Amino acid sequence: MLAVLPALLLLLLLSSRSACGVFQKLYCSFSDSCDCDFKPNIRDLEWDLYKNVFGQHLAQDLVAEEVSRFLLNKSPDRPLVLSFHGSSGTGKTLVSTMLGNHLYGSAMSSPFVHQFVPALHFPSAERVAQYQAELKNWVKGNLTACSRSVFIFDEMEKMPAGLIDVLEPFLGPSHVVFRTNYRKAIYVFISTAGQEAIHRLILENRRAGRDRDEIKPSDLQEVVQQSVYSNKTNGLYLSSIVQQNLITRFVPFLPLTRTHVERCVRAQLCQRGSCNRDDVVEAVGGDMTYDPAEGHYFSTTGCKAVAAKISFFL
């Protein structure tokens, strides 16, 4: 009897709208189904992006639009695949964390949000075949358990070449993975690859007297894609995933100016209850390193070193 109870509850849930909330709550009180933990809040995601990510109008717009469009589609023909590119400290990992936080009730601690770091999970370039088999089985197993799984691959520039291509069968619309619903999953690749191309365009734009907010996604999509595909120190080097256009969007993260860094400082000071410490904002902003040499426009570490410097100057 207990074995059929979840099925009966789901049947009742579907057959009675008025009782939907009650039965869903009852079902989820003893079920570990990812459907119970999957609680996407697009409005809060957008608010978080625009309130707490600085200097990234392209990333804010692209991530909000693509995630919203994907989740509104009840029967997507392919997963959502986002590839984040830009220099250190520009907000790539922060935005990936926001995704997990606003998709699942248990946020990044959800068992359905999976993070991979090459130095930890794929440390040896000589064991690519082994890693491919393990990664394929891991992804397939987790998609079987939860079609709404989120997979985040950080530091793609350190990923052994060819390893990530094992995901190809899970990413395209024409592929079939036996007994696995893979089209509702979300994949995020994070890399510094492409940062030179991004910096070059931003610098040219600045020297021409144009505002950085005038830059459109189309100005960087192809440039970043080509840069990533041809970068030998990147996990997507000559990747079939890129070649077959299986990445939904390449999301560029722009280098940060001193103004953006100081906004990061202010935000973190407020979290510590010290919003009014203008002296610390000024001190941290002035203590950062900026390039290029002839202009000192962009922070070389973005906002990455801000927390440590705040602690020093407080």
TrEMBL record:
<dbReference type="GO" id="GO:0005524">
    <property type="term" value="F:ATP binding"/>
</dbReference>
<keyword id="KW-0325">Glycoprotein</keyword>
<dbReference type="InterPro" id="IPR027417">
    <property type="entry name" value="P-loop_NTPase"/>
</dbReference>
<dbReference type="GO" id="GO:0005635">
    <property type="term" value="C:nuclear envelope"/>
</dbReference>
<protein>
    <recommendedName>
        <fullName>Torsin family 2 member A</fullName>
    </recommendedName>
</protein>
<dbReference type="InterPro" id="IPR010448">
    <property type="entry name" value="Torsin"/>
</dbReference>
<dbReference type="InterPro" id="IPR049337">
    <property type="entry name" value="TOR1A_C"/>
</dbReference>
<dbReference type="Pfam" id="PF21376">
    <property type="entry name" value="TOR1A_C"/>
</dbReference>
<dbReference type="GO" id="GO:0005788">
    <property type="term" value="C:endoplasmic reticulum lumen"/>
</dbReference>
<keyword id="KW-0256">Endoplasmic reticulum</keyword>
<comment type="similarity">
    <text>Belongs to the ClpA/ClpB family. Torsin subfamily.</text>
</comment>
<dbReference type="Pfam" id="PF06309">
    <property type="entry name" value="Torsin"/>
</dbReference>
<keyword id="KW-0547">Nucleotide-binding</keyword>
<feature type="signal peptide">
    <location>
        <begin position="1"/>
        <end position="19"/>
    </location>
</feature>
<keyword id="KW-0732">Signal</keyword>
<dbReference type="GO" id="GO:0016887">
    <property type="term" value="F:ATP hydrolysis activity"/>
</dbReference>
<keyword id="KW-0067">ATP-binding</keyword>
<feature type="domain" description="Torsin-1A C-terminal">
    <location>
        <begin position="259"/>
        <end position="313"/>
    </location>
</feature>
